[in-house]
Amino acid sequence: MLSLILTIFLIWLFFKLGIGLIKIFGFLIIAGLIFAFCAYLLIPFLALVAVGGLLFAAIR
Hints:
Transmembrane segments: 30-59
Strand content: under 5%
Number of strands: 0
Keywords: Membrane, Transmembrane, Transmembrane helix
Structural class: mainly alpha
Low-confidence stretches: none
Radius of gyration: 19 Å
Distance between the termini: 49 Å
Largest sheet: none
Helix content: over 70%
């Protein structure tokens, strides 16, 4: 519910600032792509690095 209120507030704010609908949708698409990149690629890679560091520290 809070995210819905935040989304409505941001769209209202963008319209008040004079930012067009195309720019809003472009921003939402870019934000979604960044989220997908972080969720599916970056976080597992960081987890592998952390596990590798722990194994290196345990073996050493």
